[in-house]
Design a protein that fits this description.
22 helices, 553 residues, 2 domains, alpha+beta, Alpha-Beta Plaits, Growth Hormone, Chain: A
Length: 553
């Protein structure tokens, strides 16, 4: 079911999330804010192009707004998974609003300079770094499970629809009035999501366990992402795509100023062309997913952006540049919407904020590095060479997506299992930080089932390890070959409980398949022990560190 929804967000259920009043309110407020943000982007980019003679400084506007996501996203994702996501969203939105308000004041008083623009862009980027993972991760709390893919696509489609309107309005406002007015309107627009988030409250799946330490949460999130082949592949291709394609947006003010001889209105028109292409591609996203494989879809997006970059390097016409940017916008939204949706679908709810933040960190790191790289090339060589280099890198990314295609996140059943796990009865008074804990699961497998058993064990190892198991291994009794032992460790007793609460429907289905292969006279048996170093000091009253669990079903 998740596969079908992800593949066809344009189906009748594609608008189902908007029937949810909380999601609808926050989503609509976000669109209002996005209009102002895009107007501000036009104003700030053009302002930098007019007050600075350095091509690198112009390109660094994009880098300064995306660098915080690279630096802070992993930390922000851990916070989003451990604290109230609603409050994290409010904090992120407050930073964005503060940045816009301060820039408005500087413009009004005439104290703005290139470094203050970069500094305030960095501050706004910090707000985005905190708001983004929390907002995306909150989708699973706001809407029904089956509507998550449609909600993710609505977020992407909504922003890219606004992308066709906001830049044009920004260009008109900057050309007709001044950058100050565009930034002031953005400041006012930032009040909409703040009000919506403050007013709306949504239920969040509670955990009976204490909150994870931030360092542990970051470690577990990175461990999960590195063990997920889908997320690793998306991160690699997303980073390469971001590094290569950001030249289109980072260097566009220079194209307008130096190559086309235009002003802020022309810049806004070209940005609107980019947004129009993004909107049209988003509207046809479901069709593209049905007729193209994942590798070909990403390759097509890279080729479209490469054609855009190469065309901008050669054209002297605003109309031709607008058409080229339409192709670039189509490729841009096709690639990023697919990357983001796949990360969301490949992550259980307990780690989705961290997975998204790690993905953002890698891809925004690529975008920030690309902004700096193409700015350096434009300043030290030529603008045309930078755009042509971007086109060449995008063609390499297209080839990589065909040679090393990403497997689509499908049928993962990564929802919480709701198995009612409360932990075994203990003979010891274990504290939350007691440990390490060693789990030992005993199987009896007949000779005819050994091959099937071993075929399932790599999946079992991945399942347990992604949930928090350490040092997983499988042993066979050399005196009784039908006797197999699965063991793993967790650092503390709380970590063992947390592992069991993280298990998903898919994990439980795998456990059932293993149970069916067990052929002993008695059910599988789980034994839990607590490690103690040999020779360590121990109080005389301390009981032996051994816990026996009732047989597994």
């Amino acid at each position: 079911m998740r596969r079908a929804l992800a593949a066809d967000p344009g189906s009748p259920s594609g608008l189902a999330p908007l029937r949810n009043p909380i999601f609808r309110s926050v989503w609509l407020a976000t669109q209002i804010s996005s209009v102002g943000s895009l107007m501000q982007t036009v104003a700030v980019s053009w302002l930098m192009a007019t007050i600075s003679t350095s091509d690198l400084m112009v390109a660094l506007v994009q880098a300064s707004s995306t660098l915080p996501a690279f630096l802070l996203s992993i930390f922000a994702g851990a916070i989003a998974d451990n604290f109230s996501r609603r409050r994290v969203m409010l904090a992120g939105r407050c930073l964005i609003a503060t940045s816009s308000a301060m820039l408005t004041v500087l413009l009004a008083t005439g104290f703005v300079d290139p470094w203050s623009i970069l500094g305030l862009s960095f501050l706004a980027g910090c707000g985005v770094a905190f708001n983004g993972p929390a907002w995306q991760a909150s989708v699973g709390d706001m809407v029904d499970r089956r509507d998550i893919p449609a909600a993710v696509m609505l977020i992407s489609a909504g922003f890219n629809t606004i992308r066709a309107i906001g830049p044009a309005l920004g260009g008109i406002v900057v050309a007709s009035f001044a950058p100050l007015i565009a930034v002031a309107l953005a400041t006012v627009g930032n009040a909409a999501p703040l009000a919506a988030i403050a007013r709306c409250k949504w239920k969040v799946r509670s955990s009976p366990l204490p909150r994870e330490p931030i360092t542990t949460a970051i470690y577990d999130g990175m461990r999960f992402a590195m063990m997920s082949s889908e997320i690793r592949a998306v991160m690699a291709q997303g980073t390469l795509f971001g590094l290569a394609s950001i030249a289109i947006l980072a260097l566009l003010p220079l194209v307008v100023r130096d190559q086309l001889g235009g002003g802020p209105f022309a810049y806004g028109v070209l940005m609107a062309g980019f947004g129009t292409g993004a909107f049209l591609a988003g509207s046809w996203n479901g069709f593209f997913r049905r007729v193209l494989s994942q590798g070909r879809l990403i390759a097509a997006a890279c080729v479209a952006c490469a054609a855009c970059s190469a065309s901008l390097a050669l054209t002297q016409s605003v109309a031709a540049a607008a058409v080229a940017l339409g192709m670039g916008g189509a490729g841009w939204v096709t690639a990023w919407s697919w990357f983001g949706t796949n990360v969301q679908l490949a992550s259980p709810q307990w780690v989705v904020g961290r997975s998204l933040s790690i993905y953002y960190a890698s891809t925004y790191g690529g975008i920030a590095a690309g902004s700096w790289l193409w700015g350096v090339v434009a300043e030290n060589q030529s603008l045309s060479l930078a755009l042509e280099g971007s086109a060449g890198a995008l063609l390499l990314a297209a080839a990589a997506s065909l040679v090393l295609p990403i497997g689509e996140a499908q049928d993962l059943e990564l929802y919480p299992s709701d198995n009612g796990f409360n932990g075994p009865k203990l003979a010891l008074d274990l504290k939350p930080r007691s440990g390490p804990i060693v789990a030992r699961i005993e199987y009896w497998i007949s000779a005819k089932n050994v091959e099937a058993f071993l075929d399932l064990m790599p999946e079992r190892r991945m399942s347990q390890s992604r949930a928090g198991a350490r040092h997983w291994n499988l042993q066979r009794d050399v005196q009784e070959p039908s006797h197999w032992i699965e063991t793993f460790r967790t650092p503390t007793w709380t970590d063992y409980l947390r592992l069991n609460h993280r298990l998903t429907i898919k994990d439980n289905q795998l456990d059932e398949r293993l149970s069916q292969l067990h052929s002993g006279e008695h059910p599988r048996r789980l034994t839990l022990s607590i490690e103690r170093p040999v020779g360590s000091a121990r109080k005389p009253s301390q009981p032996r560190p051994f816990i026996s669990h009732p047989p597994l079903g």
